[in-house]
Amino acid sequence: MTTPRNRQVLLARRPAGVPQADDFELTSTPAVEPGPGQVRVRNAYLSVEPAMRGWVSAVANYSQPVPIGGVMRSFAAGWIDRSNVPDLPVGTRVTGSFGWQDYAVVEPAAIEQVVADEGLPLQAYLGVLGINGVTAHYGLLELGRPRAGDTVVVSTAAGAVGSCAGQIARLHGCRTVGIAGGEHKTRLCKDTFGFDVAIDYKAPDFNEQLAQACAGGVNVYFDNTAGPISDAVMGHLAIGARVVVCGTAALSSWSPWPQGPRVERHLLVKRASMAGFVIFDHPQHQPVARRDLVQWIRAGDLVYLEDVLDGLEQAPDAIAGLYRGENLGKRLIRIAELP
Amino acid sequence: MTTPRNRQVLLARRPAGVPQADDFELTSTPAVEPGPGQVRVRNAYLSVEPAMRGWVSAVANYSQPVPIGGVMRSFAAGWIDRSNVPDLPVGTRVTGSFGWQDYAVVEPAAIEQVVADEGLPLQAYLGVLGINGVTAHYGLLELGRPRAGDTVVVSTAAGAVGSCAGQIARLHGCRTVGIAGGEHKTRLCKDTFGFDVAIDYKAPDFNEQLAQACAGGVNVYFDNTAGPISDAVMGHLAIGARVVVCGTAALSSWSPWPQGPRVERHLLVKRASMAGFVIFDHPQHQPVARRDLVQWIRAGDLVYLEDVLDGLEQAPDAIAGLYRGENLGKRLIRIAELP
């Protein structure tokens, strides 16, 4: 029995801001056998998230930072190729926080989902049926609390979370306004993701377009940016508006702490609220969200895009690429063919 | 029957920022008799609120601005001295938005409270039993949702709203931290209003004192400032913190729009929320709040201070004085002795 090599992407140093390719290094060591009560997962798809910037940052965050020299933390999907757990036979398809590596030896508790055959591809469970879709579902419905007829504005609207949030809002009878960068993404918002209005934040008349699209007031703002786009939307809140703080993609560094227009007066005058969340706090919401999402996808009511890079060597630059805005849809890295 | 003179304080021009004495003018005209279905109120006490800055501002707000040449909008307490309404006989004590003037002719709908004799002075119904106490009660309990053992931080803690919010938090079993300006107000917070910790924001080691007082994290922040004090507190939020945006006293102007450290990252990492409110939206909460407040005051559990200026001619400078921090407790103007 040959021992396969386990290629790993390690965090080589603490990045300042968005992690770049040279903040990581690739190594290769023999794959480890699982111990008693453990399984070994062969990763097929690795996930790339904007939130990874936070995971490697030493600045106050919602999780311990990835240690220097440690395997980069990541969701991944694959199959069990060695098992010392009777309930998890070889071949079982799973997702979990398995890291940027070929093989992960884990306890069963580390497995997030055992993926049953629902007629959907395995990698969907990393995106629209994984962190991205569940994040959009929880944030929009639990914190945004949209009502039919509401105007719902979504930033990074062509992204994996934003496109899903916009479609869920539309499925709840809302009028949806998507904000994205560039003509191609803007068209995608309209034509593929079905936003009622799509606005290019790079357009010279962005503020005028936004004012026109939000003339009746913004009831729900689902934000992923925390930058100038957000500041522009805050000026159009309706009375009782809910602002969902899902991400801070527009902030490239937290040192010095970024400044911006104060929000207090908007919140006061509009009796509005602004709330942040971390989806890992809400595991009980995952089955609820997945049940809805699977149903909508199968009915053709919810679509998603994937941006699949081939080969583990693509991983180190993949986060920086997200922040360069080069991907359309959920970014994944394929590192093995499913058996 | 002599017709009394009705002295009025009119808004002479649109102030830039905090309204100053010379933004107003005093006039005197004969008092008007009430028409059918109307009463005339003789004002005894006029109220002075930080929110008045907003009421005279043309910038987006929660109410139409006071027109130039109009009587300054204000809560007032007095008695009915002429009545064409059988249910409201002469002598009835009332509060309402009667304006900065000696006499107000109003419909019964304009009367906010008919003040029954509860053994408390009439002017209390403008402060601790009026807008200030009801604001503190609603904001703290409905938006702050304090739980016993929570650390509750209050800014402008020696003020009419802040001191009340802090005491209500203490009565709900919370540990209370009050922030006020200067040694005298800080001592007042400790000795009179019973805050567990009181911090002088003018002290050179304010940040260190705050960090020490909030080492376990801030569960509820009741803010009246929206300035550097607020920014300092935001750095100490506990997971799941609730920030209540009650006022924006630290912002002297909204043009250009004030800048400050962005709050999004705090809200996200701490799964926190920040919500504004306008107490006039919640008339149904008034009797609930007043019942609690009357009971606490009578039991000696809740104390309040008043800062009473004598004479209508004090009114024009009274708002600016609030922002200069010269008052201790609820600022009122006494313009007539109760019969």
What fraction of residues of chain A sit in β-strands? 25-35%
Give the assembly state of these chains. homodimer
Structural class of chain A: alpha/beta
Q: Please trace the helix and strand order of chain A, writing H or E for each element.
A: EEEHEEEEHEHEHEHEHEEHEHEHE
The end-to-end span of chain A amounts to: 18 Å
CATH fold-level name of the largest domain in chain A: Quinone Oxidoreductase, Chain A, domain 1
Radius of gyration of chain A: 20 Å
Quick overview:
The structure is a homodimer of 339-residue chains. The first copy, chain A, is an alpha/beta fold and 339 residues long.
Walk me through this protein's architecture.
Chain A is α/β, with parallel strands linked by helices. Chain A folds into 2 domains: 5-127 and 305-334, Quinone Oxidoreductase, Chain A, domain 1 (Alpha-Beta Complex), CATH 3.90.180.10; 131-280, Rossmann fold (3-Layer(aba) Sandwich). The first copy, chain A, has 9 helices and 16 strands. The first copy, chain A, has helices at residues 52-55, 131-144, 160-171, 183-191, 206-213, 228-234, 264-269, 285-298, 315-323; strands at residues 5-11, 24-30, 39-47, 76-83, 93-96, 103-106, 111-114, 151-154, 175-180, 197-200, 218-223, 237-245, 259-261, 273-276, 306-310, 330-334. In chain A, helix 2 crosses helix 3 (160-171). The longest helix of chain A is centred in the middle third of the chain and has 14 residues, at 131-144. The first copy, chain A, is globular. The two termini of chain A are 18 Å apart. The A-B interface holds A 60-62, 223, 226, 230, 245-248, 251, 254, 257-278, 281 and B 54, 60-62, 223, 226, 230, 245-248, 251, 254, 257-278, 281. Strand 14 (273-276) of chain A pairs antiparallel with strand 14 of chain B, so a sheet runs across the interface.
